[in-house]
Write a structure and sequence with these properties.
The protein is mostly helical. The chain is built from 5 helices and 2 strands.
């Protein structure tokens, strides 16, 4: 059983998957920063500075000015703004990943293009010898 486990771990697919997971985790930090630090502020400018994450419906009693205040008070809330923010972030991240995959595929396709055909080779040694033979017969 241990030998089978070692064989399983040693397979290239498992190692490739492990590398992919590690790179994916690092890429997540980059994409999260891209969305949070660059794209969301632009969306905030377009929507007039509206912060979706603070939108909620209070399902209990009392009036709360923010979602944080309602949660601190233990009030039941329907936090649809946080869901909207998560959906927007997902769409942005999915689009960034789409662009990345498209770029990688383009680079792969360019690398796989066949090389330009080589210049036609001159006559072979056999052809030259045959020409010499024919010339000597005359």
């Amino acid at each position: 059983m241990i030998k089978e486990f070692k064989d399983f771990i040693a397979k290239g697919n498992v190692m490739d998957m492990a590398v992919g997971i590690i790179i994916g985790a690092a890429f997540t930090a980059i994409v999260t920063s891209l969305v949070g630090d660059l794209i969301n502020p632009i969306i905030g400018l377009i929507t007039g500075g509206m912060d979706f994450s603070n939108l909620f419906v209070n399902l209990g009693e009392g009036d709360f000015t923010s979602l944080v205040a309602a949660k601190e008070a233990g009030a039941p809330v329907f936090a649809y703004g946080a869901f909207l923010t998560a959906v927007i972030n997902f769409l942005i991240i999915a689009f960034v990943v789409f662009l990345l995959v498209k770029m990688v595929n383009k680079v792969k396709a360019a690398a796989e293009e066949p090389a330009a055909p080589a210049a036609p080779a001159g006559p072979s040694e056999l052809d030259i010898l045959m020409e010499i033979r024919d010339a000597l017969k005359k």
